[in-house]
Amino acid sequence: MAPQRVEQVQAVLDLVRVVGPVRSTVLLSGSIPRTLNRTDLWQQPRYEEQLWNEVVAAGAGDLRFGDYGVVHPIAGPGFRSKHVAVKYSCPAGWVYSRERLTEDEHSGVDSSLAHTLRRTCRRLVTSEHFAGPRFSWGDREVAAAADGRGNGLGRRSKPVAIATSHHLAYLAARDR
User: Fold this and answer.
1) Could you tell me the CA-to-CA distances from 100 to 75, 119, 146 in Å, in that order?
2) Which of 23, 37, 91, 131 places its Cα 20 to 30 Å from the Cα of 13?
3) Distance of CA 165 to CAs 26, 54, 168, Å?
4) Is this model's pTM higher than 0.70 or not?
């Protein structure tokens, strides 16, 4: 993180404190892109968390951390994606597991959406980033899907629910 960025945040905090007493100050940001354009498993830094860590280390111990979680705060275009993605927060940054839906590959039991979610979960479970099935409800769902179990995997909301559960548990564990 550039030192001038930390200095800029500190200057804004100083201005806020001059205005008057505030109950709390929160560095709120999000680095989830509006759309993803890759498939497979890849990692991206969490710049907002890096910045917050550095500002706190520089003396702003009362600054709270806030982020938009696993979705971009501005809704994307209103079309159905032809992909399934699980967004996973970890100390090293964001980890994305994303696959294209394939109608001809799914088993007779699963829908194409469920089959693709199982593949994305298997990739995540076998990565070094997986926190384990006991970490959160979402992590249990990831492990179950990877093992061929799980419920509701054909719903479009399932990857977001999984990622949100894991993300909230990650934030709670980080603040201890």
Assistant:
1) 21, 10, 17
2) 91
3) 21, 26, 5
4) yes
Q: How far apart are CA 72 and CA 25, in angstroms?
A: 22
Tokens 């969490």, residue located: 46
Rg (CA), the chain: 19
Under 8 Å between Cβ of 111 and 120 = no
Residue 158 has which token pair? 């399932």
